[in-house]
Design a protein that fits this description.
This protein has about 270 residues and is mainly alpha-helical. Helices cover about 70% and strands about 0% of the residues. It has 8 helices and no strands. Helix 3 runs parallel beside helix 6. It starts with a helix and ends in an 8-residue tail after the last helix.
Length: about 270
């Protein structure tokens, strides 16, 4: 029986939305003869990886893997792949954030992008080797929150360009407003997961390893999970997915608008 139906349905929708967004960015880019800006390409990669992570998220939610006390074999493989690709999306978003900054020169950006690939490989090794040497699962899930942290960086950046970009065109300002809306919605989605992680995420919640959060409350009550204010059929993951789904359209419109007007960061 499929568990967490709301999370499964919204995850499938998220796969389609991420990949449709990436395809829309790619098709729009082909209208121009010049190379796409570095931030544009980084968002394309982020959306492709986001779609892949949502596939494994669908399997994880549908099989109720987050409710298992221990994960091994295929169950851990699905969970690990979801974590790895979520972290990859986060790194691509960090790369986009760096690409929007005028102070990051081309060589610096290239070196940073190469370092990002190295960090991604380190994450893969950490998750793979960590499971074999017995690192607790909550510690192995630590790369996941970086997705929300990436949007936390992009949010003030988009606000700054949206409200202080007087030296740019009105089209660019409108595009940055769309980016602001998209980044804000995605950040709210990540915040929802953070807020409800202790009570709703299962026995292996990330809060266990965060000193300021403490233990998971999932298994401290009878029946387990009864402290979660959200129903299993539409839990905190489903709510996050709704916010992410809502964020993709304005973000893609904003990115295409910035490409159309040849936006570049103002010199400081």
């Amino acid at each position: 029986m499929v568990r967490q139906v709301g999370a499964v349905v919204t995850d499938i929708m998220l796969v389609l939305a991420f990949w449709k967004g990436a395809n829309s960015l790619s098709r729009h880019r082909r209208k121009f003869s010049w190379m796409a800006p570095r931030w544009y390409g980084a968002f394309f990669v982020a959306y492709v990886l986001g779609g892949v992570s949502a596939i494994f998220g669908t399997l994880s939610s549908g099989l109720g893997l987050n409710y298992m006390e221990d994960l091994s074999g295929w169950a851990w493989l699905i969970t690990a792949l979801a974590i790895v690709f979520v972290f990859g999306m986060a790194l691509a978003l960090f790369t986009a954030w760096r690409g929007f900054r005028k102070s990051i020169r081309p060589l610096q950006f290239l070196l940073g992008a190469q370092a990002t690939m190295l960090v991604f490989l380190v994450c893969v090794v950490y998750i793979t080797a960590g499971r074999f040497i017995g690192i607790p699962i909550p510690y192995l899930m630590l790369p996941q929150p970086f997705q929300g942290i990436a949007f936390m960086f992009l949010l003030p950046q988009s606000a700054m360009y949206a409200f202080t970009g007087r030296r740019t065109s009105k089209r660019a300002n409108r595009s940055w407003m769309l980016m602001l809306v998209g980044n804000m919605l995605a950040f709210i989605g990540g915040t929802v997961v953070y807020i409800f992680d202790q009570a709703c995420a299962g026995p292996a919640c990330v809060s266990r390893v965060l000193p300021w959060r403490g233990e998971c409350h999932w298994h401290t009550v009878d029946p387990p999970g009864s402290l979660c204010p959200l129903p299993e059929s539409f839990n905190h993951l489903a709510v996050m997915h709704v916010f992410f789904l809502s964020s993709i359209y304005p973000t893609v419109l904003g990115l295409k608008g910035l490409l159309d007007c040849g936006w570049d960061a103002p010199r400081t």
